[in-house]
Amino acid sequence: MIDKLANQIAQWNRRELKLTETESKVIEFGLGVFLDVCVKFLILFMISVLIGKEVEFALCLLSFCGLRCWAGGVHCPTRGTCLLAMIALCFISLVAGSLLENWGIGVFVVLWGLCILILWLRAWKNENSAIVRSRRESSKKRYILYYFVEG
Asked: Can you give the pLDDT at residue 35?
C-alpha cells in the first residue's frame, strides 16, 4: 500500500514537473521511506494512547531514533518486522523504566554514561571510512597550507 501510494505520487510529480525517470524513482523511494515512518509513528502513537503512556513512548522513540542515527543501526528485512521491533523496543523500555524507577536517579546517570561510552567507542570504529579519510586529508591540507602561509 505504501509503495503504491509513493509510486502514484511520484508519477504525478513526474507528469506535473516533467521529471526524468531517475528523478521520479528517487522521489518515489524518498516518499516510500517517509510514508513508512509516518505509518509506524501513527501506529505507535495509537498504542501509546490506548495504554496511556504517550510521554514514555515519545521519550523512547526520541532516544532510539537519535541513537540509531548516530550509531548507524541494523535494518530489518521488511517494514513489518521493523514495526514489530519498534513496538517491542517501546514495551521493553516501559518495563525497564518501571523497574529502574524504584532504584533511584543514580542508575540513570550510570546508564546514560554507558550509552555515551558505547556511542563514543562505536564512532571510532568508523574512522577508516571514506568520509572520515577525506575529511582528515582535507584538514591536513589546510594545516599544511596554513603553516606555509603563516610561516
From this structure: 87
8-state DSSP, 75: P
Using CA atoms, how far apart are residues 47 and 73, in angstroms rounded to an integer? 24
Helices (H), the chain: 2-17, 21-51, 54-71, 79-101, 105-125, 130-150
Q: Which of 26, 25, 24 is nearest to 15 (CA)?
A: 24
Whether 140 shows a pLDDT value over 70: the answer reads: no
| Percent share of the chain, pLDDT over 90 | 0
- Compute the half-sphere exposure of residue 55: CA atoms within 13 Å on the CB side of its CA: 1
The C-alpha cell 521493553 sits at: 92
Cα separation, 22 vs 30, whole angstroms: 12
- pTM value is 0.57
Q: End-to-end CA distance of the chain: give it in Å, rounded.
A: 64
Would you state the pLDDT for residue 131? 56
CA-atom Rg of the chain in angstroms: 22
Ordered DSSP codes for 23-64: HHHHHHHHHHHHHHHHHHHHHHHHHHHHHT-HHHHHHHHHHH
